[in-house]
Amino acid sequence: MTFQVTVQPSGRQFTCEEGEAVLTAAIRAGVGLPYGCKNGACGSCRGKLLEGSVTHGVHQVRALSAADEEKGFSLFCCAHPHSDIVIEAREVLGVGEFPIKKLPTRVAKLDR
Prior knowledge:
alpha+beta, five-stranded mixed β-sheet, two-stranded antiparallel sheet, 7 strands
């Protein structure tokens, strides 16, 4: 079974297979959700679940407490949807969307 994931506020959409984590599906679809560890320990992928339902796999309580989960927060690296969902998350820009800046620098000291 396939579920539709909609990211707010951008409105981008992608599909997520049953049993697949939201972050895994986003990476496969080229949607840049933030992440760090990919295993529920750091909380970098944390966002809000606006509509639908998910089940969280194994994760650290400090990354997502039960109280935060009740408030609608979710760890997308270990969240598996059970329906179409709408999430609120910041998106990471694509590689070509970062402006190139040249900054003058000077090495003050080099220790070997």
